[in-house]
């Protein structure tokens, strides 16, 4: 939970925890333990590197629902806008231009919101 909070921020995790129901509690436990407690807590990659990889994978697989959340998390992980455009170029080459294009649209919109311009 500490890693999840350090990446996503207390506000996001508090909202997720408050919205948890008996139905999705096993899933919330699974992602907290598996993704955050196991994978994101490993020492080899930095949180910045994990952010870049995560966003590239989300975009490359077309899992766009979590892109904005992970873009907002870059404020905590240190991944930069330059890092993300480089990652999206890789997505375009290896996974397809339409996927990268859609992810870039979400990334731009999220940065505009973060900058207070949206």
TrEMBL record:
This protein's record includes keyword Lyase: yes
GO MF entry, a single one: peroxiredoxin activity
Domain called Carboxymuconolactone decarboxylase-like: residue spans: 27-108
Pfam family, one: CMD
Presence of the UniProt keyword Oxidoreductase in the record: no
Enzyme type, top EC level: lyase
InterPro entries reported for this sequence: 4CMD/NDH-1_regulator, AhpD-like, CMD-like, Decarb_PcaC
Keyword entries, A-Z: Lyase
EC number from the UniProt entry: 4.1.1.44
Protein name: 4-carboxymuconolactone decarboxylase
Organism the protein comes from: Paroceanicella profunda
């Amino acid at each position: 939970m500490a890693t999840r909070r350090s990446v996503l921020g207390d506000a996001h995790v508090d909202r997720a925890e408050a919205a948890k129901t008996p139905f999705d509690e096993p899933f919330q436990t699974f992602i907290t333990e598996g993704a955050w407690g196991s994978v994101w807590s490993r020492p080899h990659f930095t949180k910045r590197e994990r952010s870049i990889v995560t966003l590239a994978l989300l975009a490359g697989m077309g899992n766009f629902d979590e892109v904005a959340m992970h873009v907002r998390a870059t404020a905590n992980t240190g991944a930069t806008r330059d890092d993300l455009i480089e990652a999206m170029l890789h997505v375009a080459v290896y996974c397809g231009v339409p996927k990268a294009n859609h992810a870039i649209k979400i990334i731009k919109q999220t940065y505009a919101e973060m900058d207070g311009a949206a």
